[in-house]
Write a structure and sequence with these properties.
By secondary structure, the protein is an alpha+beta fold. A 4-stranded antiparallel beta sheet has the order 1-2-3-4, with no helix packed on it. The two termini are 27 Å apart. Bound molecules: zinc ion (ZN).
Length: 83
Amino acid sequence: MDYSTHENVALGSPCTAIMRYRQMKDELMEILACPVCKGTLELTVTERDDREIVTGSLYCSTCDFHYPIKDTIPNLLPPDMQD
Ligand SMILES: [Zn+2]
């Protein structure tokens, strides 16, 4: 497999660019909701740089579950699909 070609295609996608932009913003919280109950998520930032949240978690008090944020990417898989 030609990995470099694959990566260029992915990075050139407008959809990917929008997702990357959104992940950098604190307005993250206005976009994301709990995938189970659609409730509001409470953001906890463990590590951040100037513009983006690097590591942290999104907590749903209704489900009593923390969705991890790792390398700026929120993992919003339902609890039974997390690692
Ligand atoms: Zn929930």
